[in-house]
Amino acid sequence: MRDNEFHLRPFAGSITYAVGGNIRRTGSRVEVLFRVTGQCEDIRVQNPGIGPQRRDGLWQGTCFEVFFKEATASAYWEFNLAPGGDWNLYAFSGYRRGMMEETRVADLPMTTTRGGGLLQVVATIDLGLLGLQEAELRLALSAVILDRQGGLRYWALAHPVDKPDFHNDKGFQLHLV
Asked: Where are the beta strands (DSSP E) in the chain?
């Protein structure tokens, strides 16, 4: 078991909170915790309390994202985790190519905590369902945050180009063995 703490950097704009978390791998399971602290009451959360559903387009609102690939591969996966409980998983054959909903994962255990200047999402991903239980992985972690005024803010481990692009290979900066 190995823990990796991370801190996401904002792309641009005024910042009234901090975004970070922790990712841990135990066997074939990866647990990721995203934590936002600060003026979290300004964050808009879609579908709170309705119950977790697989849903498309979560990146158009508040959403945490985990991109991962085998260390030397061009194919990768993207998990979307919305604090309201919705989620999705996509497989890509290469940079922004071949996007398909990954059907080998049927549900995603996730919990959300909100209040007192905190918004936290914890999810567990079973890499064994994707045949990646033994794989050395490279990850990119990111967040899209929708504020009450309708503005989107983008956060990531790195912003390698002049616009938010979470799919960029240079953003896969965390290694998980």
From this structure: 2-7, 9-10, 17-26, 29-38, 63-70, 76-81, 87-92, 100-101, 110-114, 118-126, 137-146, 152-156, 174-176
Q: Tell me the residue type at 91.
A: A
Backbone angles phi, psi at 14, to 5 degrees: -75, 140
Kindly state the tokens that stand for 6. 């991370």
Only one residue has tokens 């709170």, namely 48
Partners of 144 in the β-ladder: 63, 154
Q: Using DSSP, state whether 41 is helix, strand or coil.
A: helix
Residue 113 CA to residue 158 CA, distance in Å, equals: 26
Tell me the whole-structure pTM to 2 decimals: 0.93
Residues 9, 12, 17: CA angle, nearest 5 degrees = 55
Angle at 46 between CA 40 and CA 48, to 5 degrees: 85
Task: Look up residue 87 and give its two tokens.
Answer: 């989620």
Mind listing the pLDDT tens digit for each residue in 63-102? 999 999 999 899 999 999 999 999 999 999 999 999 999 9
